[in-house]
Design goal:
Helix content is 74%, strand content 3%. It is mainly α. A two-stranded antiparallel sheet has the order 1-2. Helix 1 runs antiparallel to helix 2.
Length: 118
Amino acid sequence: MNNLIAVVLPYLGRILLAIAIWLVGKKLIGFIVQLTERRMDKVRVDQSLHTFLLPLVRITLQILLILTVAATVGIEITTFAAVIGGQPVSRWAWRFKAVWPTLRGGRFDFDLKTVPGG
């Protein structure tokens, strides 16, 4: 039991701080989303944009909150940042996969016809 206390005690402050950041962050995210929704109502933004933008704002802020809590606890977030940063690249590569067969030997083929002089 003493060994467990000796191991947990140094991290107790970080864990309590992470819990506090999580609770305050969740309330702050709710406030920011409500504020964004009220502002979009006031300037008469189309309702279809509401259903797109509000979840986008909420999810983005929640990802930032999770990364902040992880960093507070002591988890290295560089891997998470690399994964999140690599998402647009992987989506682009997935779309590029359909175009890939038209790239051969430094030439770009349009409509499956070889470019003259290429």
